[in-house]
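User: Show me a protein chain along with its predicted structure.
Assistant: Here is one chain, sequence first, then structure tokens.
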Amino acid sequence: MTRAAESEEATERARIQVELDLDGSGDADIQCDAPLVRDLLRLWCRAAGFDLTLRGGGALDHHAMEAAALAIGRAWRLAYGPTIGTRVAYDVAPRSDALVLVAVDLADRPNYVGDVPVPLWEHFLRTFATEARIDLHVGCMRGRTPEHTLEAAFTAFGLALRRAMGPRTSSPKAAPAAEREGEAVVPRRRKASRDGLQKANAEVHAKVGKRELPEVAAAKERDRRLHARTPRRPDQGHV
């Protein structure tokens, strides 16, 4: 099944056309008037493994950035569809003096929390998360240069998306299904460990029986000697 979609967004100052393939090889063919947009989206595609084609005009302003974010976010949601993957993932990316952590949840709960140092790109990421209907968190752990911080953020964003869209390694319904079909199911490791611990405790109790441990016997002997040395007052009765 091909996960690809097209989208278009037009404003008074810009018109953006997008083709996005989620199962690509990381190629980005971006034609716009803003070099930084090209660089950041190429990093994002390379990290996520997306093929992106973007055609658009306009300067690097609020309207053009919003149109690009809307078009890419909508194309991503259309291409991803109801596919079930890992869903929740995070990743970290360095870039010179910057280090950024990004976490995503692909559930249908649009939300954005971040501290990107450039308000225009902060608005881009928030708009993308809203249109793609994902929960996106961007934490800039360190960074002196805004450009390096942005590069690390988009790289970590792509890596986190790639991991979140990957296949699940296990399914909680797999074991019951196998049991219904009469297949042998390996016990869970936690249950096996609990059974082994109970068996080991039973063996210890069988060997020790009612014998006192040496430490307990020594403590009782010390208490007996201490009471024997302590003189009893006449007004004290027997316990």
